[in-house]
Amino acid sequence: MSLAKKDEETGLGSYYNNKTTIIQEARVFNESPISPRKCRALLTRIVYLLYLGETFSSQEATTLFFGTTKLFQNKDSALRQAVYLAIKELALSADDVIMVTSSIMKDMQPNLEVIYRPNAIRALCRIIDGSMAQGIERFYKTAIVDRNPSISSAALVSSYHLFPSSREVIKRWVNEAQDAVNAKSTTSFFGTSAAGGYLNFSTGSQSSSPGGYQAVPSTSYITQYHALGLLYLMRQQDRMAVIKMIQQLGGGKSGAGTTLKNPMALCMLIRYAAKVLDEDPNVQRQMLELLEGWLRHKSDMVNYEAARAICEIRNVSSAQLVRPIAVLQLFLSSAKPTLKFAAIRTLSTLALTHPGPVSTCNVDIENLIADSNRSIATYAITTLLKTGNEASVDRLMKQISGFMNEISDEFKVIVVDAIRSLCLKFPGKQATMLNFLAGVLRDEGGYDFKRAVVEAIFDMIKFIEDSKEAALAHLCEFIEDCEFTKLSVRILYLLGIEGPKSPKPARYIRYIYNRVILENALVRAAAVSSLAKFGVNVVDQAVKKSIRVLLTRCLDDVDDEVRDRAAMYLKVMNQPPLAETYVKDESVFSLAALESKLAAYILDANASDVPFDTSSIPKVSKEQARQESARPSALETAHTIPAPKAPTSTAPAPSIAEAKSAYAKQLAAVPEFESYGSVINSSWKPTQLTESETEYTVSCVKHVYKEHIVFQFNVSNTLPDTILENVSVLMQATSEAGLTEDFIIPAPQITSANSPQVVYVSFTRENPAEYVLGSFLSTLKFISKEVDPSSGEPEEEGYEDEYQVEEVEIGAGSEYIVPTYASFESEWARMANGPSVVETFSLSAMDSIKAACDSIIEILNMEPLGGSEHPTSQSVHSLMLAGIITGGGGKAIVRARMTYISDTGVTLELGVRAEKEAACNLVIAAIGG
């Protein structure tokens, strides 16, 4: 170790591990006789370089690869193991690696020494391709059930890596993988180690026992962990099979008697159970019973994983949290720092949504404030901040200030996030917390930490009116010495929005213009835009005159972007309509929706007669546009093999505009709809009309045309031994709906393999100027045929059958309203003289202001503005919404004033202003209905 340190200091290490040097020294592979010691050292250096991220060209990797394969002739066991390790890594970039397949398979024979087989199995999965998997099936199936855990684990892990390319072949190994999971005991073998002792290939320990190989029992059961991962990979597309596997291996309600003995395997099973519970609420009770049973397992690792899984259940109740919190509370007093850290971190996360149940642990958490591990102390204080009362804030803030300089940026971010949520919880303490945030903003720190502080101050400005002036002043001081361009640009943008609204807007102009003088081109351009907002929005003519002078000076800037912005803003400042569009308006068109409308306009045969109308295209805020542009494309989110553990994230779902665009393309391909014109709107989210576990599942999407409404039914058949033919949906209006049925486009045949299939039902709108509302009784009608299990062919004659599904409703929100972003104050004022309606409603079923906000947003399908979807008061709140009414209904703005009283629920005053009276009536009808 000391020699390596000296080498690093003198630079000899960098030469010794240089790629060029290693390639030159590869001639030792050709020496005769071969020196095992030299070859082992060189192979170690090759693997070390690959581990550091060094890349070999295809030619270099091929040369090293085939030089390494010459060492197969040597009988030195340690050298042979190093050879397998090297070729496994080099195979990724070398050419013609498949030529060594036969050499590797010789070492996979069951009658050879055990020491070579695991290495050969692991290397072979990197060498072969999918087409060769069937040829080595016998070797792998034998190895999976081998009584040596190192061989069995090697085969299981290799099978896991081969699964993407040889899915169908490896699925046939399910019995062997099940045997590996159910193995009651395993055996390890001792063999001669490079150090001269005897190495346990299962545990890595050495023994001085003389002579040959010695079989000893193994208690790690690591094979179960690998076998469970492979089993889940085989069954992950079959939810019922996964549920059955979890229940069989779970050990029942008590968690005892489970087949799985390896704690890591049990932890992985818990994650699978949590994933199933999250995706399918119908099995919540069974999965929750299993998770609660694992809380009593003898392994701390399993106890913690089960407790964490229950705490992360969506909509978990306080009663369900009692047992997992009790387990985590025991860990808080453990002597093991890892257990304390894991428990307090989980409780800290849970305190965001369930502070009440977590507060029962406050006494134990307070004992951790003085813990020598500052990571644990940080989580302890932030958890107390989330669960404590207003009186304890000052004391906790003092304790935080005492060790902020002793913790890493990662934990500083956690502290800041806790204070950020605390600001909204206790607005009366905003002065104390703002001073703390301003203080840490001056301290040393990286971008993530400074960004977290700035975001916290932004939230205070947004939600706490009393803190706005002081917070803006602190941000102005920060940009005087800010080293991060992104933060400077964001703060300048905020100053341009909030500064003109302040009582003394001129005080901020000096700080902004300083950026024009002192900063780089990006910041200078942002400062020019911020100055222009002052010039347009400030009423004081003296300030406007000063802004023109400052922008005129920017015309001499060395950067063309800064000059162009200054010239444009000087031009539009004197023309109110242009200023409204280019300076005040903070919205942009949704690009996905714009693309969809343009594509439909081009395909429309009558498009040349009518100019393109942008009024029906929804707008988004610039922040939403940035988030949308940052979403990965479909190519970047291609299906990949999941990790051995239960996946915690998935590829992002398509946006609303992307989903509607896909529907428009799908409908354009149906000949019967060619004469309908372009789709005005689609209810992008399918409405489920059946339970997910029924034999036939049906969902519905509604498409609105100018003179028609088309119902798209997505029908799935989950019965493998039944075929449905001539599938249609019969719809009957429950009241006078103003629709006349045109035709039904049935699905010819639906099997469990080709599910789902689409059934279309078309209706004509009797009065296209009216917004049709109502509901339909719907019945699935089809001919059912049984499948002969021996031949796989359906019977010649089936029988007609019907299946009742839930009613299909046509509401105002998803059918006729498209959410759009707008500036509430300006739009509300603009529509003051237009059609307006104010109605009062009693929402007795709502138990909170937040629930009422969520319900109103869902019913109206409108865009919440200004963060009003997050109420800051539990008794009084105003929700602002904006949307576009389809079919030429224009824009509608909604102000929903709510008051919550525990005895009567939520009282709602709904004010609607719109460009057309029909839009006002539609919005009121949506809530009143």
What structural keywords apply?
7 domains; six-stranded antiparallel beta sheet; 929 residues; globular; 22 strands; single chain; disordered N terminus; alpha+beta; Leucine-rich Repeat Variant
Molecular structure report:
This protein has seven domains: 12-235, Alpha Horseshoe (Leucine-rich Repeat Variant); 252-316, no CATH class; 409-479, no CATH class; 483-584, Leucine-rich Repeat Variant (Alpha Horseshoe), CATH 1.25.10; 590-628, no CATH class; 686-788 and 795-810, Sandwich (Immunoglobulin-like), CATH 2.60.40.1480; 815-928, 2-Layer Sandwich (TATA-Binding Protein), CATH 3.30.310. Helix content is 48%, strand content 16%. Strands 7, 8, 9, 10, 12 and 14 form a six-stranded antiparallel sheet that branches. Strands 17, 18, 19, 20, 21 and 22 form a six-stranded antiparallel sheet that branches. By secondary structure, the protein is an alpha+beta fold. Residues 1-13, 185-217 and 632-651 have low confidence and may be disordered. The longest helix is centred in the N-terminal third of the chain and has 17 residues, at 263-279. A hairpin with a 7-residue loop joins strand 8 and strand 9 (696-704).
